[in-house]
Design goal:
By secondary structure, the chain is of the alpha+beta class. It contains 13 helices and 24 strands. Helices cover 30% and strands 23% of the residues. Helix 8 runs parallel beside helix 9, helix 11 packs across helix 12 and helix 12 crosses helix 13. It is globular and about 95 Å long.
């Protein structure tokens, strides 16, 4: 941790499985609760936009509107809320790109063992717990005072006593009371409750008996975490240690390398194969390549392909978690002829997803070797946080070639000096364009001179856009072709734009 950002990494079996990065002023708002104002209601979308004071208005769907006594089915948002209404909402998804935060009125407050749902009902138990533990926890929760709300029992509650669960619920009830009282006193929009930062959230959500240790490299953060555990799970507090090694914490455990790897399209596999990960507007596509993995001895092709796919299935899930990839995902495994092998790869994928805390849905592998799946996406991943769109290609992943720029510049040159009586004419262009025009003994430049009947001297200007050209005037320095040009035109032309002649 440093002053600019907080980084949290989860290491499983010696490999980095997840990374979370929070930067100053750009922390996740998932879990935050606001008193907001309805800015607009869109009946055609059955949704509303809510002002909560964080720039972009949040999005609230009709299914996330709490209306006591109104059935869920066949509800119309226009009948439930209207413009100007003041409502309490919670973020379930961070703002991403041009979209604001996804909001809900079905609030939930997370504790160490329980999640309290003020407007909910019933008791839900984590499906990751075995049946006997689920029955035990349900019996305990039935006797807890929920004040008309609902409860969700978390995986971390495994082995928790009735006293621990009661203490957890009591603190959540006090928190909800404080939020309710604050909402009556503040103006709209106002923040009513801030979710814990990423480090405390990870401790709260996943620290249990299966975690060997927690290393923290910041003394203040170490004290916050141990203080939280002393109140909620004293038996786990001694697993948190202040790291004082010679190497930086993240470097010593391979996290720096793992973070940087998320910026690469290609992910190598131990067998010699690889994954290629491409993001599009609609989905993420992951291609599995056999690469150098050609099998050994008399190994059949189908066996080699299946082994590569099984290895890839596990690595795909690791990359989904490491990069926090969400939305629609299509995985293009290498084609397998045997349906049994396709089922084995699907099983390997599902088994690996058991470790993923994020909600996923997987469709069985197709005869073409494609797996379609969805993964819930609530925050930006490491790559989105650490990068920005390329100013040259705009994030498209390609740039216009030097030849194309040169051809565009040639058009501009012809337009600028067409009909000019001056000769020579000094024209400023980008160095790449000059290289192209002067290649093969000035062949391209000589052709322009012949067509226009003028002599042209090129001036190189690295500050110019590659596809543009201008007549070098008195203010542009000494032309590369010799003495100062007599032309004093300040004309400028960009690729695809008409030239403006404004000769002095």
């Amino acid at each position: 941790m440093d002053r600019a950002e907080t980084r949290v990494a989860i290491v499983e079996d010696g490999r980095v499985a997840e990374v979370q990065i929070e930067r100053r002023g750009k922390a996740s708002v998932v879990g935050h609760i606001w008193k907001g104002r309805v800015e607009s209601v869109l009946a055609g979308m059955e949704a509303a936009f809510i002002e909560v004071g964080i720039g972009k208005n949040g999005f609230l769907h009709v299914d996330d509107v709490v209306a006591i006594g109104v059935p869920k089915r066949k509800r119309l948002i226009a009948d439930l809320i209207k413009k100007g209404d003041e409502i309490i909402v919670q973020a379930v998804k961070d703002p991403m790109g041009t979209k604001g935060a996804r909001l809900t009125m079905q609030l939930s407050l997370a504790g160490r063992f329980l999640v309290y749902v003020p407007f909910g009902d019933g008791i839900g138990i984590s499906k990751r717990l075995d049946d006997d533990e689920r029955h035990r926890l349900r019996d305990i929760c039935k006797r807890l005072p929920t004040d008309g709300g609902g409860l969700i029992v978390r995986t971390a509650a495994a082995g928790a006593s009735a006293q621990e669960l009661a203490r957890d619920l009591a603190s959540l009830n006090l928190l909800w009371k404080a939020i309710s009282e604050r909402s009556d006193k503040v103006d709209t929009p106002s923040l009513l409750y801030s979710e814990a930062d990423s480090s405390l959230k990870v401790i709260r959500d996943i620290l249990n008996e299966t975690v060997d240790e927690v290393l923290v490299d910041d003394a203040r953060q170490h004290e916050r975490i141990t203080g939280f555990l002393r109140r909620t799970s004293p038996e786990l507090a001694d697993r948190v240690r202040l790291y004082e090694g010679a190497k930086p914490l993240m470097e010593a455990h391979g996290v720096e390398t793992a973070i940087r790897s998320t910026l690469s399209r290609r992910v190598p596999l131990a067998s010699g194969g690889s994954l290629v990960i491409d993001d599009t507007e609609a989905m993420t596509v992951i291609d599995v390549n056999s690469g150098k993995n050609v099998g050994r001895g008399n190994t059949q092709l189908e066996s080699t392909i299946t082994r590569t796919n099984l290895e890839a299935a596990e690595e795909v899930v690791r990359q989904l978690r490491l990069r926090d990839i969400g939305g629609i995902i299509v995985i293009d495994f290498i084609d397998m002829d045997d349906a049994k092998n396709r089922r084995a790869v699907t099983k390997a994928l599902n088994d690996a997803l058991e470790k993923d805390r994020t909600r996923t849905f997987v469709v069985e592998i197709s005869p073409l070797g494609l797996v379609q799946m969805t993964r819930q996406n609530i925050s930006d991943g490491a790559r989105e946080i650490m990068t920005r769109a390329c100013p040259t290609c705009g994030g498209q992943g390609f740039v216009v070639s030097a030849e194309t720029h040169a051809i565009d510049a040639e058009r501009q040159i012809r337009l600028l000096i067409k009909g000019s009586s001056e000769s020579p004419v000094t024209v400023a262009v980008h160095p790449e364009v000059a290289d192209f025009l002067q290649a093969d003994g000035n062949a391209a430049l000589a052709e322009i001179e012949e067509d226009l009947g003028v002599s042209i001297a090129l001036e190189r200007d690295g500050s110019m856009a590659p596809g543009s050209a201008r007549i070098a005037g008195a203010g542009s320095g000494t032309p590369s072709g010799g003495g100062r040009s007599r032309a004093r035109s300040r004309s400028r032309a960009s690729a695809g734009a008409p030239a403006e002649a404004a000769t002095e």
